[in-house]
């Protein structure tokens, strides 16, 4: 990116109007579908903003599903409005796009970081290190997330086990109350046939800016080597039921259609198989309603599935790189970072039991 082009984009962002207002949760009520009212003024909220709002008042996806299963949409609206009315002492920030549609909400207690801070950090960093500004991007689902990609003047392409990655670049991201620096690994050739991007965090705004400016080559190299090691481990490993469950929950945190997450990871099929299993191994794991606690039962760490851990990681990175708008995901950065955390998590190397022997 030429300096003239960079300055034009920078000025556009700094001059942009970020319409945001603070309200008490008790001032908000749900009318129906995507329409809410605040102080007798109707507003429209995107579905993922409704999820954010539900999270702030303690209305979980499981509770909503149960209410709809046993009642009606009107009963869900009543429950939502009841919880909103009980939260009069809590405040929320609502963000609108240029058309007045609410595109984001968050706790009013979170710090606002002016967007100029992003550009100051980037410019100081490039002055001190061998990086140049390559591109400025944002996503349509979240106009409050802006990323500046930095290209290393000495690119490094790494190849292993059919994968080819550019591991040279970094990325700064501003998201209203967050400012982060991540390593950006671009998979040029990968198993799913599509380019994808992985982010692993190095620095956040909570740390001193000087810590960001003086990141050593040794640190970056050690992180790259650890990443490659975890990739190879994932390629050679079948995922346990608990690991498929963890990937499903991670995706449910970001995806708009919660049931779709079960389908994408294959966890719905696993649940169905276990439900009708007569294996004695599962006898003590069932709850009174016949279900399972997949997050806490040790047995689910021991039962392996046909799915490779690498397949789950590929799924997460593919969605974060190519299907942000399809699934109405608010932050590509957060999903990509969560995917990297999933890859890096410690695995349970135990005497595994094959799923086919259980269900």
List keywords for this structure.
single chain, six-stranded antiparallel beta sheet, 13 helices, three-stranded antiparallel beta sheet, about 350 residues, alpha+beta, about 25% strand, 15 strands
- Tally the beta strands: 15
What is the element string, with H for helices and E for strands? HEEEEHHHEEHEEEEEEHHEHHHHEHHE
Characterize the overall form.
flat
Strand content: 25-35%
Largest sheet: 6 strands, antiparallel
How far apart, in Å, are the first and last alpha carbons?
Answer: 55 Å
Helix proportion range = 40-55%
Number of helices: 13
Structural class: alpha+beta
Q: Radius of gyration in whole Å, from Cα?
A: 23 Å
Write down the overall mean pLDDT. 83
Spans of at least 5 consecutive residues with low confidence: none
3D architecture notes:
This protein is 40% helix and 27% strand. The chain has 13 helices and 15 strands. The strands form four sheets. Strands 7, 8, 9, 10, 11 and 12 form a six-stranded antiparallel sheet that branches. Strand 7 and strand 8 form a beta hairpin. It starts with a helix and ends in a 5-residue tail after the last strand. The model has no long low-confidence stretch (mean pLDDT 83).
